[in-house]
Amino acid sequence: MLTMGVDIGSTACKCVILENGTNIAAKAVVPLGTGTKGVSEVVEIALKLANVQRSELALVYVTGYGRFNFPEADGQRSELSCHAKGMKFLVPDVRTIIDIGGQDVKVLSLAPNGQMTNFIMNDKCAAGTGRFLDVMAGILDKKTSELGDIDAKAKEVASISSTCTVFAESEVISKLSANVPLPDLVAGIHASVAKRVAGLVFRAGVVQKVAMSGGVALNKGVVRALAKEIHSEIIILDDCQIIGALGAALYAYQEIMKQKNKE
After folding, report:
1. Half-sphere exposure at residue 125, Cβ-oriented, CA atoms within 13 angstroms
2. Are the C-beta atoms of residues 90 and 247 closer than 8 Å to each other?
3. For the structural domain made of 93-236, what CATH number should be given?
4. Tens digits of per-residue pLDDT, 104-145?
């Protein structure tokens, strides 16, 4: 039995095809977000990788920022519940999940059985999000994906005191004019993000094990800075970007099982 989960984010679309609720048959990520052709592309790629047709899927669930823009889905689930379910599937003893998305930051607290007991969100300000890093990378004339490697060369961490994206932008430009070394400046940007996110983590409560999902988890500089701020190791999976889509596929499978049990 095949189920599909689609996670339509603000900056990327992710898709997972799950076989019998246990095996990931295909996974795909396209760096195009809601309102673009990204969702159709990511679904097409996943279907090709699994070598199946849409008609062979038992159920398709969608989640994410743009979940209301995918009428082809059979149902939808919240980002919070999907990230909790997807991460619990891959890291059974996870208790704290940090998801830094393109537009928001989510921190989830889970009970030992995987039930979500608390969550904190920051969706009112771009500071601490992937968008903040995109803006900073643009100022530095670098790709966002390059920032982690640049950070690794830092000898000091430049102080970025502003938490507001607009003011931080001015601060970074000022430090560039003052010839602050680029690696030190990038490390400072990452530290700024980490402090912002750490505030949310402490409000939710830090309980081991801690794992991180979302594309920003691929930035080793942010992960290092955040681990330092919250005084905890952070688990980073190779599949950190597909956690939400995996959770949606798991919910689809769970729904199929419920229907079968009623029969």
Report:
1. 14
2. no
3. 3.30.420.40
4. 899 999 999 999 999 999 866 667 788 889 999 999 999 999
Q: Take residue 89 and report the two structure tokens written for it.
A: 């599937």
Fold of 1-91+240-263: Nucleotidyltransferase; domain 5 (3.30.420)
* 36-42 contacts, C-beta under 8 A, 24 or more apart: 38/8, 38/12, 38/13, 39/6, 39/8, 39/13, 39/66, 39/69, 39/70, 41/13, 42/6, 42/13, 42/14, 42/15
* Closest alpha carbon to 190 in 212, 213, 210, 160: 160
Q: Nearest 5°: phi and psi at 155?
A: -100, -25
Contact 253, 137 (CB under 8 A): no
In one-letter notation, the amino acid at residue 17 is I
The answer, as to whether pTM is greater than 0.90, is yes
Residues of the chain with CATH 3.30.420.40: 1-91+240-263, 93-236
Instruction: Give rounded-to-5 percent helix, strand, coil for the chain.
Output: 45, 20, 35
User: Using one digit for the tens of pLDDT, what is the confidence trace for 26-61?
Assistant: 999 999 998 999 999 999 999 999 999 999 999 999
Neighbour-count burial of 203, counting CB atoms closer than 10 A to its CB (0-12 exposed, 13-18 middle, 19+ buried): exposed
Q: Please report which helix (H) or strand (E) contains residue 122, including its range.
A: strand 116-122
